[in-house]
């Protein structure tokens, strides 16, 4: 693994189903983030984690949950998917805090909820 | 409120210079980032400004005026590969980044 990876690359999901998007980084970065990107809107922060064992809510957390059991992994779970969660999801990481450190992004997961 | 504004789309000619502007309003400002995002790909870091002034990095330069809540990204000697979206971002009151919607730059031969 080099950098930050996400799985799956794309997914079509029926409404009401549960789905976990996976994110793994091998840079030993402390902070990790989940964003969604929708046409005409900027990246919007869903959840973040400043260090292993801690998580925080971003701008649009409803309907999503995260965990940070270790430094490398930061999965995002949709408990019961709805069509409005159709989006491209990016995971990112940074060595330190978001306000000063470069964020490195994974390739994204394109999710369609029908 | 907190918001970031940048033009939706710009067009420029190969070999020319283009300036992409970004204005912001936030209560937790601690620097401004520029990222590049090619269609279908992830954003990648271009620059970070925390002090007023111009920072040059090869063909790309970034400017910041904290008093005016204004930044711009200057791209010189445009190449076709510069066709992409350019995203500006700065911190909000929770010390997380808020992002502009991006400026799609179209380069014509």
Q: Your description of this structure?
A:
The complex is a heterodimer of chains A (114) and B (109). Chain A is mainly β. Helices cover 0% and strands 45% of the residues of chain A. Chain A has strands at 4-7, 10-13, 19-25, 31-37, 44-49, 56-57, 64-66, 76-78, 87-94, 104-105, 109-113. In chain A, strand 5 and strand 6 form a beta hairpin. Chain B is mainly β and 109 residues long. Chain B has no helices and eleven strands. Chain B has strands spanning 3-5, 9-13, 18-25, 32-37, 44-49, 53-57, 60-65, 70-75, 84-91, 97-99, 103-108. In chain B, the strands form two sheets. In chain B, strands 2, 4, 5, 9, 10 and 11 form a six-stranded mixed β-sheet that branches. Chain B has a five-stranded antiparallel β-sheet with strand order 1-3-8-7-6, with no helix packed on it. Chain B is globular, with a radius of gyration of 13 Å. The termini of chain B are far apart. The mean pLDDT of chain B is 94. The chains are: A mainly beta (114), B mainly beta (109). The A-B interface holds A 33, 35, 40-45, 48, 56, 58-59, 90, 97-100, 102-108 and B 4, 28, 30-31, 33, 41-45, 48, 50, 87, 89, 91, 94-102.
